[in-house]
């Protein structure tokens, strides 16, 4: 069931646990319950960032890894570049950010270090050179990019050809309601460069789980505004197709949404977060659920145009 991440030696469960809510809407007890359930269900791939809850997400994960003794069985991905204490991708900031993450995560290495953004104020060569020193020191194993354009990924590949670290993974905003950004340029490049793709916002902030059918159900906050943007004719059309598939196979809508992502080329592990251990069941079920070709076509047609 596990998948190899590009040409690395990392074997991961095909669904990464997103932890942006850890330390924010989920406290320590609730976060550890989610982590326990994820591990018990076969999961081994945790995605976090030094900016999530100002580092609190990493702290909670680190405490859990130490308590359970599961660090060696866990593939740990963390992102840097957006924490105000080490903002951007300058060499000094990268080194300090990684040192701080290692402390919070209570580990001596990060399996997959991700640039959380493309810092255009810093030469990419400087950023990659800093990571090179971290890889040589054993603090980082592999490198990933998030929110990079195809043009910048091409530039990074040229630098890698001259001996600097190469991106192995691309994190990109991609789901049934948000398709054009990835499918029009990044998908082709990911295939050409052999990048493993980790779609984030895989459930469109919860919209694709099917729990939000009207604006009256949505909280007036940033997440609610994102969900509300999907309450269109296109969104309603999609939910109708997803409802039919979910009923046909007796699965949850979240399972359908994640299975659609996994049907696409180069997708390694969508990133999905949950608010409770119980919500994980539908997420984890997507690892073994396969959509028929006809159902994939129906989903594609329902969301064509974005």
UniProtKB/TrEMBL annotation:
<dbReference type="InterPro" id="IPR036812">
    <property type="entry name" value="NAD(P)_OxRdtase_dom_sf"/>
</dbReference>
<dbReference type="Pfam" id="PF00248">
    <property type="entry name" value="Aldo_ket_red"/>
</dbReference>
<feature type="domain" description="NADP-dependent oxidoreductase">
    <location>
        <begin position="14"/>
        <end position="301"/>
    </location>
</feature>
<dbReference type="InterPro" id="IPR050523">
    <property type="entry name" value="AKR_Detox_Biosynth"/>
</dbReference>
<protein>
    <submittedName>
        <fullName>Alcohol dehydrogenase</fullName>
    </submittedName>
</protein>
<dbReference type="InterPro" id="IPR023210">
    <property type="entry name" value="NADP_OxRdtase_dom"/>
</dbReference>
């Amino acid at each position: 069931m596990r998948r190899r991440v590009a040409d690395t030696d990392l074997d991961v469960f095909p669904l990464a646990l997103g932890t942006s809510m850890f330390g924010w809407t989920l406290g320590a007890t609730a976060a550890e319950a989610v982590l326990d359930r994820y591990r018990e269900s076969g999961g081994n791939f945790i995605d976090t960032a030094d900016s999530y809850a100002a580092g609190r997400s990493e702290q909670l994960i680190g405490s859990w890894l130490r308590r359970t003794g599961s660090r060696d069985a866990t593939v740990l991905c963390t992102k840097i570049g957006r924490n105000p204490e080490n903002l951007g991708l300058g060499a000094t900031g990268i080194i300090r950010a990684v040192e701080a993450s290692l402390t919070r995560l209570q580990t001596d290495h990060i399996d997959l270090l991700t640039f959380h953004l493309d810092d255009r104020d810093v030469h990419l060569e400087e950023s990659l050179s800093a990571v090179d020193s971290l890889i040589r020191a054993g603090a980082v194993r592999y490198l990933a990019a998030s929110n990079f354009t195809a043009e910048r990924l091409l530039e990074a590949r040229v630098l890698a050809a001259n001996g600097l670290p190469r991106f192995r993974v691309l994190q990109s905003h991609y789901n049934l309601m948000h398709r054009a950004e990835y499918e029009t340029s990044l998908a082709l490049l990911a295939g050409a460069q052999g990048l493993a793709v980790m779609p984030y916002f895989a459930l469109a902030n919860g919209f694709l789980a099917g729990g939000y059918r009207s604006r009256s159900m949505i909280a007036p906050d940033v997440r609610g505004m994102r969900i509300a943007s999907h309450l269109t004719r296109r969104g309603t059309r999609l939910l109708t197709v997803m409802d039919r598939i979910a009923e046909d196979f007796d699965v949850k809508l979240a399972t359908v949404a994640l299975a659609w992502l996994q049907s696409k080329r180069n997708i390694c592990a969508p990133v999905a977060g949950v608010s409770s251990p119980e919500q994980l069941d539908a997420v984890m079920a997507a690892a073994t659920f396969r959509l028929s070709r006809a159902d994939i076509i129906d989903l594609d047609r329902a969301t064509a145009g974005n």
